[in-house]
Every structure is written in C-alpha cells, then in structure tokens.
Amino acid sequence: MTITQLLECDTLTDVAARIRSHVVDMCAGPEGGHLGGALSCVDVLTALYFSVLDVDTHWPDDPDRDRFLLSKGHAAVALYATLAERGFFPVEELAGFGRAGSRLMGHPVRAVPGVELPTGSLGHGLALGCGFALANRYAGRASRTFVLLGDGELQEGSVWEAAIAAASLRLDRLVAVVDRNGLQLTGPTDAIAPMEPLAERWRSFGWAVREVDGHDPELLADLLDAAAWEPGKPSVLIARTVKGQGLPFLAGRASSHYVTLSPRNHARAISALRVAEALG
C-alpha cells in the first residue's frame, strides 16, 4: 500500500493522533513505558514515515531504502506504534509490548521489522547514522539517513564527535532531528547542562540548521523532505516539542519520563486525546 492510499482519508495529524493513542495504551501495560519522550516525538515520526522516508513495508531490507535511527531508543513505544500504523507489522501486536515472549522490548531491537539497529545507549545514534550515510555514498546510492536524538542526549560527547565527522565528510544525505522538549529524567536540560544557543552551536560544527514547531507534522514533513538544505552540509532540524504532548496532566513535566498508567490515568489520557482530536 502506498503512502497516498494510506492517507486517502487521513491527514498527518489524524495519523499522529492514532499513534499517540497506541503509545498511551502501551504505557498502561504492566511494564509501563517512556511516555513523555515518546509523545514529544510522535509528530516527527509521523512526518517521516508517512511523508518523507522511502521505505517498503514488504521489503524492509531493500538496500536502496532510506534509513531511520531512533537514537533516543527509550522512546521505542512511539517507534513501534508508528511502524505498526505504517504496516510493518500488525497493530494488534502492540498490546504485547514489554511482555514475556514479545519482540517489542523497552528499546528497539532488530527483530522488529523496520528497526535498523538496537539503540538507546545514548550518544551512539548519530555516529551510526554517519556510517550509514558514508556507506550509501560509497555504494552510489541516493538514500538518505535520518537520526532522531533527544536534547538530553546532546550532553554526550560522542554526539559532537559524530557532528564533526559528518561535517568534515560533507555527508549532506544525513539529517539529524533534535527532539527539543527541554526535559530529561532528572529535570530541565538547561538546568543540568545548558546548550543554548543550540542552533548556533550546530552551525559552528558545520551543519545546516532549521528550527520548527515539533508538533506540526505537515511543516515537519516539508522541511525534512527538502533536506539537504545546503549542498555539502549535513542537516539538523531542531524540533521544539513538549514532553508528554497531548496529556494536560503530564505535559511539560519531568515526571512523565517513565510512567505506568493506572486504569484511572489511562482513561484520563484517552479522554484527553479524544478531546484534542475533536478540537482538531
């Protein structure tokens, strides 16, 4: 099924709403999940998988495919929900997340169709993305590589080593997205390790930079599809987001980082998402 067929009656916002509902359901399971950081990146994943990435659900290992790496691998529930909605595996499988015998583990694993590599040891994804981009260049492929990083992850020095390498190698088929929700497990990112002016920091490392509302999937899709923005430079999109987006009782709170939703809070969350979808 093509993207056009998938979106025949839906907008990207409609798809994102369904993905958020799946995330909430998974985080109401016995193991819970990284709810806040998953909800903050749903619109980015929706834009990528339903508008930008050249991937084939029937041939996930097509050598000419675009690559996507979820460097902030703890947001796996958002990736699983997106892959299921896109058709890589049945949506019904999401109900088994984190349970014995399920391949849907707390961090992405290669056993899941559409997952390129196990990720979640923070700071590694961008370097891996450099490797994919360089390999594609040597193979003569036009494929692009996209890497989604958390803003707390930018405290890892390996991210900046990879940023230097990408610019030095002129990897303009490499696109990084920073989920700039401003929070990490222990509090505000800027109270722990200030990183502003973040855009200028990336520019100083030789990257082409754009900033965007990270909860506008149509705009995200337009910007990501237009990369590379400057010839010979890797691209980074700083997506300004809200941790726990869509759930008023958790949005913008560090306490949303890892949550096991009680039956009551699960019902509250689903109700909030329905209200938001109705208001459109």
Automatic annotation (TrEMBL):
Pfam families: Transketolase_N. Keywords: Metal-binding, Thiamine pyrophosphate, Transferase. This is Transketolase, N-terminal subunit. Its cofactor is thiamine diphosphate. It comes from the Bacteria. Residues 15-262 form the Transketolase N-terminal domain. CDD domains: TPP_TK. GO terms for molecular function: magnesium ion binding; transferase activity.
